[in-house]
## 1
Amino acid sequence: MAMFKTLFAAVGAASIASAVPLESRQVIPNYPPNELSTGFRLVVNVTDPATDLTPSVDGWELQGIHTGAGFNDAALTSEKGQIFYHNGTAAEIRFGEGSILSDGGSPPFPFGIYVQGEDQFDATYPAEHDVSINVGSGTIGVSLLSFPDPYFYLTAHATGTFVACPRTVPYYNQEFIVVRFAYDTFDPDTALPVHNVPEGCTAITLIPECDVLPELPEGSLSSHEYAAESKCYKDVSAINWPEYGP
Ligand SMILES: *[C@@H]1O[C@H](CO)[C@@H](O)[C@H](O)[C@H]1NC(C)=O
Ligand SMILES: *[C@@H]1O[C@H](CO)[C@@H](O)[C@H](O)[C@H]1NC(C)=O
């Protein structure tokens, strides 16, 4: 019995030693430094540069485009995008039950980021799930929660990825780079989820860049009482990703 134990221990130690290459022991987790701010803009990081659009949308920012009273489609701009904040009580934020808001209109109203569910589809592109920025609370669970990932970015509380796509927006009958949510599909061979990026689109993350949340004027219908402090980056485009990891 004692011998078996020793043998197992020795085999165990040997296989661990051979499984861990020498260099990886020296890798210390290293992440881009973040700051805290209630206000932030959402900056595009193209996660698979080989599939980037032409021109590149890396570094572009999220900006709603008006599509009707209280309705905006989520689009990207090469200029500065709109300012958002993470709304919710401390517990709601912690458990990913807050939402992402922006103020719009006069007097200012809250607008929330809405992500269509897996069973909801865009009216013009019925295979795609729309993202919009409309009057209201937004989709609960759309948040900056990133656990267990050490980076902070927008998540939809679902397995999938945001994507940027050139699409015709019927209200303008004109093409914009819009944001959609692509739910992962399940690969039965590997038992792993796989990204399901629609034709002509590129997968993106939307990363918070710290900004100043403007004060609300007297008589606003928005409130910043539950605007949480968010972890954000000073300059998203300046982050040199290969420097960070593992
Ligand atoms: C940003 O994009 C790069 C590829 O350009 C990728 O390596 C990195 O993981 C991405 N970071 C996040 C947080 O999406
Ligand atoms: C912001 O969060 C608070 C706390 O949960 C909630 O009462 C309020 O309705 C939220 N605001 C909006 C516009 O959803």
Note: The radius of gyration is 21 Å.
## 2
Amino acid sequence: MICVSTRGQAPAVPFRQAVVSGMAPDGGLYVPAALERQSAAWWEGLRHAPFQDVAVAMARALLGDEFDEGELSALIREALNFPIPIVRLDDSLQVVELFHGPTFAFKDVGARTLARFLALSERGVAASDGTRVEGLTVLVATSGDTGSAVAQAFWGVPRTRVVVLYPEGQVSQVQEAQFTTLGGNVSAVAVHGSFDDCQRLAKEAFADAALRQRVRLTSANSISLGRLVPQMFYYAYAALQAAPGSRVVFSVPSGNFGNLAAGVMAWRMGAPIAGFIAATNVNDTVPRYLETGHYEPRPSVATVANAMDVGAPSNLERLQWLFSGDRAAMREMISANVHTDDEVKRAIAELHRRYGYVADPHTAIAYLGAVEDGASHLFATAHPAKFAEVVEPAIGEAVAMPGPLAEALARPRLIERIGPTPRELANLL
Ligand SMILES: *Cc1c(COP(=O)(O)O)cnc(C)c1O
């Protein structure tokens, strides 16, 4: 898959190189130069197929030129080894649950696949850049959630090591349990300092030329195309579970708009999708752009759906590129709506009362979006137990903690401790 930059000022590169680089050298984001449209018959051949089969077929169509078939299918099946249940609320609305991965949030889909793409791609790229470092060290500074998603994603991936820096005593118990109890190729490092100290240490490590001679550092970049490609698969899967000819419209709870960009890419590839609804919290930069044509980012506002608190969504640039900057064409395919915290809490209560469905705040926004603009499907992006402090008061009941989270809490913590100095981190690396 040939990849180009959204800003058009960087050389085209193969997907493997785009994954290792993360961002294009001109500051743009990598996008597929062309998304070859598969025939209607090709898609019909996947009607009612299991999720992993749809994923492998699409991965082969997209990346078969760069990866060995067996290697690619093993990678996809290992990364996406959890179910994506589709729950029927009523005759016209279904919930596509994306949160059954190890950290109970939909980012597992992208992170687990990216981890394996990176491990495979790095081999080829390492051979060509002349250094002799074996393997890859993923360095991540976290205030909580990123660390667990990245650590879980890379856990057990060959030739990689993850080092998670976090401020000692300043992450939640559940978050700490998720990245300090893994062991193996995951090192959890409690820094005697703040989150800012952790971020500064990571930055200094990336800038330390001597260190980088002996350790191949990478950052598992959140805007990598390697995270978007696997997110195309569940759109097609859910659309292909519907009866042939159904009008499939997805309501997507959006923050950084990676999820929606992946949906548009799946549609471009010919998946039978009729439209999208971008549902946001009050961080409404993209809905305002669709309405007015002006991109006016704002500082983010804290909401109960905090994974969507993004004031300057980076993937809007990808969406614009995908529609060749034609806002009218974009609006034909994507409608947008915006929801306050009060509406979200009422929606959680309504979903519970009307359907007996327990939704987290992000999923509740997708529901509101679906009701407002008429979707057939909405995405559930996090397990409600991760947001119990919002969900429980809204439904008046306790939310059970999923078994694996409870188990992680009970396991012993494996923690290294350092002071906030570059020397101590370099020694540890
Ligand atoms: C990241 C996230 C989103 C938003 O996804 P984007 O791709 O950033 O738009 C929605 N819900 C949850 C739970 C998330 O973690």
Note: The first strand starts at residue 2 and ends at 5.
